[in-house]
Design a protein that fits this description.
Radius of gyration: 27 Å
Largest sheet: 6 strands, antiparallel
Low-confidence stretches: 1-38, 49-135, 215-224
Number of helices: 21
Number of strands: 10
Structural class: alpha+beta
Helix content: 40-55%
Strand content: 5-15%
Length: 509
């Protein structure tokens, strides 16, 4: 099992000779942060791993000599060959002097506890638990980065004023115009809202957009209509893909080698089904909709596609989206959907990837969307087999049975009957309305019930088995530390341990 984090301290170190409060060390878990590690023993003789992260950000140039003092005995845990940077990582200016430095210290140990005097023993008597600052200095962030991050995240000035806790939007507008500056606490709230690190706002100029570009975005009007939550999920998907490739390496998208064309959806679906290796018999024998979905999910992941899920994005906005890349392309499904609907969305987005494009499910009704819908229907409900199962029965009476047989939704089965000429449009419209009413009623009942799946299973679902296993394999191979694994998985120790156990149970079944 994974090493246990025994305790986390936020500490402040008073360094002798540093008297000007114009040097700030801001914690950052980004890859650009510097990480120091030292193995020590606690009072019980158990080995403890001390890890602390640092990103240097300064307010002005004062005394470069103050930085040199940090390696001269103020921090006895630092090895002599370690040196601190001479310039600010955010703004590039020479590092200045300070009377306090913030550090996050984590103790990793296989023991059940850690001595509370370890911090003082290995970091010097100047360390103490962080209390309230005597004053709240303003932070000279780059104004253009504030407006860039807000607009890319899809928030209005009023939205951010509420999230940061200021009275009105004029304060936020003043920060973005450079007429005023936020405090450090406000910078941290801005960073949390935009999904950035505090250090990001000290860059000189905005970087290129890291929001994945999709062909469905046909102008600023469409891009502007993306909700902040969906934008965040799109960025997370791209970041997780980059992390996966960093830890595991890129996977070939093997289905692209089939060279299928969605202009002939029936042929394309048959070829792709054969390549995925899930027979119609296995589909019929799936014990429930969740089991059938897991068959398709595993097969598509094994073809070189990363599949994630998202929470907190309404189904009314989208059921899923895809990001095309020649290697390790991405599909993201809405976790609020039912398994049989996820199966359809999975194949719909796979259709986008096979056309070397990406998309947001449900945003348009253009030719590409119709091709992907036809491909998904042919893949999940092959025409010959579907009509064979229908037989001589009344189509309307057979809809529920067909949906159960092929592990799809009633609406998908009804649409398939309509496409195959076995159902009239007015009957389809009525069934769609009945299905919508049924879904709304069941969602209301579900929301009224207390509880739900455990947090670690939701987190594992959203990250995807392939991604989580890549992170855990890297940790077990000593290619990353446990702190790195916690960063990649965005999870605390108990959650990681439970996810690991769930994967072990899943693989054993």
């Amino acid at each position: 099992m994974l090493t246990r984090i025994c305790r986390t301290w936020w500490l402040v170190c008073d360094l002798p000779g540093l008297t000007v409060s114009r040097f700030l060390l801001v914690l950052s878990r980004s890859r650009g942060a510097m990480r120091f590690i030292r193995n020590v023993e606690d009072d019980n003789g158990d080995l403890v791993e001390l890890i602390y992260y640092c990103s240097w950000l300064c307010f002005s140039t004062e005394s470069d000599a103050a930085v040199a003092s940090l390696t001269g005995g103020a921090w006895p845990c630092l090895d002599s060959e370690l040196t601190l940077p001479a310039v600010c990582r955010g703004c590039g200016r020479p590092v200045g002097a300070s009377d306090s430095i913030e550090v996050e210290l984590e103790l990793h140990s296989s023991a059940h506890g850690a001595s509370t005097d370890l911090a003082e023993r290995y970091f010097g008597s100047g360390f103490r638990e962080r209390g309230r600052m005597a004053r709240t200095p303003k932070v000279p962030v780059t104004p253009s980065l504030l407006s860039w991050a807000r607009e890319l995240s899809g928030y209005s000035l009023t939205d951010i004023a509420k999230r940061v806790g200021v009275k009105d939007a004029t304060r936020v507008a003043a920060w973005e115009a450079g007429d005023d500056q936020p405090t450090l606490a406000q910078v941290r709230k801005l960073a949390a809202s935009y999904g950035r690190t505090p250090a990001f706002f000290f860059l000189k100029t905005p970087p290129p957009s890291d929001l994945p570009k999709e062909p469905d975005f046909r102008g600023l009007t469409v891009r502007g209509s993306l909700s902040p939550k969906l934008r965040r999920e799109m960025r997370l998907a791209a970041e997780r893909r980059a992390s996966y490739i960093e830890l595991h390496g890129a996977d070939d998208f093997r289905l692209a080698e089939l060279g299928v064309s969605l202009d002939q959806p029936e042929t394309a679906a048959r070829v792709v089904r054969d390549a995925l290796g899930v027979s119609i018999r296995e589909q019929f024998e799936a014990r429930d909709n969740s089991w059938a979905y897991s068959l398709w999910l595993s097969a598509i992941e094994n073809s070189g596609v990363l599949v994630f899920q998202m929470s907190r994005v309404p189904l009314a906005e989208t059921r899923g989206f895809s990001i095309f890349e020649p290697e390790s392309p991405v599909i993201v499904l809405n976790g609020a959907d039912v398994p049989q609907a996820k199966s359809f969305t999975l194949f719909h987005e796979l259709g986008h990837l096979l056309e070397s494009s990406g998309g947001i499910c449900g945003w348009t009704d253009d030719a590409a969307e119709r091709r992907c819908n036809a491909f998904a229907a042919d893949a999940l409900m092959p025409g010959a087999e579907f009509l064979h199962e229908l037989g001589d029965r009344d189509p309307i009476e057979a809809i529920s049975d067909l949906a159960s047989r092929f592990r799809v939704s009633r609406e998908a089965a009804a649409v398939r009957l309509k496409v195959l000429g076995r159902l009239e449009q007015q009957d389809l419209d009525r069934i769609r309305q009945e299905t919508a009413d049924w879904v709304a009623e069941n969602r209301q009942r579900a929301s009224d019930r207390e509880g739900g799946p455990p947090h670690h299973l939701i987190h594992l679902r959203n990250l995807g088995q392939r991604y989580v296993e890549a992170v855990l394999d890297a940790y077990q191979d000593d290619r990353i530390t446990f702190a790195d694994a916690a960063f990649y998985l965005d999870a605390k120790v108990p959650t990681i341990q439970r996810m690991e156990q769930a994967l072990q149970d899943r693989n054993a079944s």
